[in-house]
Amino acid sequence: MSVARVTATHRRLLHVRLTDGSEAVARPARRELSIVCGDFVRCELDARHGELNVVAVEPRSSALYRTNARGGSELLAANLSLLLVVAAPLPQPDWFVVDRYLCAAQCAGLTATLLLNKSELALDAGIEGELAGYRAAGYHCLQVSALQQASLGELAALLPTHTAMLVGQSGVGKSSLL
How far from 64 is each of 15, 110, 116, 165, CA to CA, in Å? Predict the structure, then answer.
């Protein structure tokens, strides 16, 4: 039996990183296993089918939840220490979404940083005021540009001591930052 970390989930198909650093595909051995990105899992090789099966989920140090459309909670990720909440001047920031993610981070006991991507674009007074409010509330706010690679060194300096997740509304540049 080996321990691995889940790096991606696609329904019942999991991508895991084994302790030797190699990547593999695995499947949950039982339907009742609730597995998300960041989970540490115990795996066994099914010699008959040649598949790696996840047989157990290790205890989580943290769990990030969001509210689903029915008002229930939905587990998003586990064992994080940093949540990077991404916003941008375009599309128009939805500060309610930012607030929800910051609240979720606080509830999960995670450090949160607000990343304003696309810093090459002009910021209106409304965005500047919102950022000032987040800073006054004690949040670290960092202005970056994935396009121009501005301030990415400061962002990279945050990462070595954390397990982080990028979140934010569609179109803000999460994939570009990755």
Answer: 19, 9, 21, 10
Cα pseudo-dihedral 98, 92, 133, 114, rounded to 10: 50
Preceding omega of 59 cis (within 30 degrees of 0): no
Summarize pLDDT for 8-47 with one digit per residue, the tens: 999 889 999 999 999 999 999 999 999 999 999 999 998 8
Q: Which of 126, 117, 107 is nearest to 167 (CA)?
A: 117
Structure tokens at 71: 């008002």
Q: What's the pTM?
A: 0.89
What CA–CA distances, in Å, run from 171 to 77, 86, 98, 99, 175? 21, 10, 14, 18, 9
Please, are residues 119 and 143 in contact by the beta-carbon 8 Å criterion? yes
